[in-house]
Amino acid sequence: MMEHSDSKHLRSLSAHIRPQIALPEIDCEAPIDEALANFAIQRHRIGAMLYKATRHHENISERAASLLSATYHKNTRSILAQRAALQKITKLLEDHAIPFSTLKGLGIADQIYDDPQTRQSKDIDIQIPPHASRLAIQLLSANGYIYKNYSLRANKRVTLKRQLSDMKLFKDLTFVDPQFSTAIELHQRLFKVEPKNLTADFSGAINFQKTPSVLDSFYCFYIILHGAVSLWMRLKWLVDVSLLVRKIPVSKRQEVMELARTYGCENTIIASLRFIDEIFDGSLDEEWQMILREQEHSGDIEKLINIFRKSLMTTSPDRPDAPLRKPFYFDPTTALFGKQIGLFNIIRTRVVMSIALRI
Q1: How far apart are CA 267 and CA 17, in angstroms?
Q2: Using one digit for the tens of pLDDT, what is the confidence trace for 149-208?
Q3: Rounded distance between C-alpha atoms, residue 186 and residue 115, angstroms
């Protein structure tokens, strides 16, 4: 179980927000002080949710209450800007017949949160088909969107050829809407390294709906997998999936598990769901528990859960800009996707990414 200097804060935080995510309250005598507020805001990006859950709490310090209130209202303004930016880019893409889907973010907040303004999001993720990449980049550039260059060289000249190359390699490009100061991530595929055909199959399943439904089994699978690929390093993603799994119809749950088997990540999905229920007890109902018991046959599941615990407990998530800073002896992608992706392919990709960042 969790044994880390931040474990006390994490237990307190997960306990305090339970009523806000429709889970039964549990006793929590820990005060809501400035340290806990900052932990929620900076480390786990759920300050707005903690504000809503505890704004009438008796044991909250004046400083914590002020910080959380400011975060909630700042997030409210940010969401308004994101909605305006999304409306603007939606029109731009639709006017030029570019298929697209918005992933996570506002779409999740609107569908599964009682108060969408409690979900913090820093950007808008838009998936487009690879064949539309050139036109989409040209459109955003021509309409004043500011490109955030991947290169570590500050004076590196940006060319369309380089942008297309970077998008293919890194999976996405980031532009900033200058009117609303909102980051737009333009995605060509779902993950930097992924099983063959995953993105193509996903796109075919959701058929580039503007806002995919969280009741779609492939979209549910993607949301869970996204948290796992990030090693569940933020409580925000665990909150998403705790809410999500309680909304997935029983008929769709087996479909999610079948997708996990198809892409070699059944253990990853099982470990993720077990981990979510560990942090937010009661997230999985008896039907989910039965599905997992029927399919839980590997000792690797507990190893994955330990990786997730360590990641969630890390004081400052290690997300270095240069891929070669990560140790070669372990890459989470190999653990998450089993034999679907070889270690050689991952190391090769990381080498190429590291070189690309520096030239």
Answers
A1: 28
A2: 876 665 667 889 999 999 998 899 999 999 999 999 999 999 988 888 999 999 999 999
A3: 27
Q: Which residues of the chain have pLDDT under 50?
A: 1-4, 319-330
Among residues 1, 80, 5, the alpha carbon closest in space to that of 43 is found at 5
Strands (E), 160-213: 172-177, 182-187
Other CB atoms within 10 Å distance of the CB of residue 127 = 24
The answer to whether the Cα torsion of 10, 12, 18, 24 is positive or negative is positive
Which residues is 123 bridged to in the sheet?
A: 183
Q: List 183's β-bridge partners, or say none.
A: 123, 176
Distance CA 56, CA 71 (A): 16
DSSP, residue by residue, 20-70: GGT---------B-HHHHHIIIIISS-HHHHHHHHTT-SSB-HHHHHHHHH
CA dihedral 134, 137, 139, 143 (to 10 degrees): -160
Cβ neighbourhood burial of 224 (10 Å; 0-12, 13-18, 19+):
buried
Q: Would you say the pTM of this structure is higher than 0.85?
A: yes
Closest Cα to residue 353, out of 200, 172, 228, 158?
172
Q: What is the DSSP string of 155-171?
A: TPPP-HHHHHHHHHHHS
* The pLDDT of residue 345: 66
pLDDT digits (tens, 9 = 90+) for 336-353: 886 667 655 666 666 667
Hey, what amino acid is at 39? F
Q: What is the largest CA-CA distance in the chain?
A: 58
